[in-house]
Design a protein that fits this description.
The chain is of the alpha/beta class. It has helices at residues 12-27, 45-52, 63-73, 92-104, 125-139, 151-156, 167-175; strands spanning 2-8, 31-38, 55-58, 78-81, 87-88, 112-117, 147-150, 180-188. Strand 2, helix 2 and strand 3 (55-58) form a beta-alpha-beta unit. The radius of gyration is 16 Å and the shape is globular.
Length: 191
């Protein structure tokens, strides 16, 4: 089962979109918990979390510290990091379950996954190939695509760096492009 971690700060309005797209995962039994790792918001982010049944944690410190603390408290064997305002395409639960089956095969299976940016959806095959080539040439994956990996792999990698200015991107680089799969389900918008 999946623990979803969303770092928030004054995210009351945008996090509602993200939480609403997670409902199919809860209904399907894929989502065990959603954790909002907040930096001390003064808006209604905590009330939104309470209404939605999420765990709400106020964590002082950097983004990396908030993400690491929430991941350390997560109860599920899988972690999904999303940015507030991100909206997953409705087929996301099936894609995650498919990836779990591939990842359990071990061998040469990717160790982590990201979602396909909505901007790539509906593009011609040529444009999609061009975008994939750009990623292979160093463009890489972005934190806006979410990140799915096992809690064991997260811990083995050392988690998010509390001192990094860009801890999400740094973790993606640690995993490495060849160990990250792109799920077919799209993701759009984030704060």
């Amino acid at each position: 089962m999946l623990s979803i971690v969303i770092p928030t700060h004054e995210s009351e309005r945008v996090v509602v979109r993200t939480l609403s797209c997670l409902v199919p995962g809860v209904v399907a039994g894929v989502v065990r918990e959603v954790i909002l790792a907040d930096s001390g918001s003064g808006d209604g982010t905590e009330q939104v979390a309470d209404i939605a049944g999420c765990r709400f944690m106020t964590v002082a410190g950097s983004l990396g510290t908030r993400l690491r603390t929430a991941a350390g408290q997560a109860r599920g064997p899988w972690l999904l990091f999303l940015r507030p305002g991100s909206v997953l395409e409705s087929a996301w639960t099936a894609e995650v379950e498919r990836f779990w089956m591939l990842a359990s095969d071990e061998g040469g299976a990717p160790k982590a996954a990201v979602f396909q940016p909505e901007a790539y959806r509906g593009q011609s095959l040529g444009a999609q190939v061009l975008n994939l080539l750009r990623q292979a040439a160093g463009g890489g994956f972005r934190p806006e695509q979410g990140l799915l990996l096992t809690k064991t792999a997260y811990d083995r990698l050392g988690g998010h760096d509390a001192k990094s200015a860009a801890p999400e991107a740094q973790l993606i680089r640690k995993i490495g492009r060849k160990h990250i799969a792109v799920l077919h389900a799209g993701i759009s918008g984030s704060q």
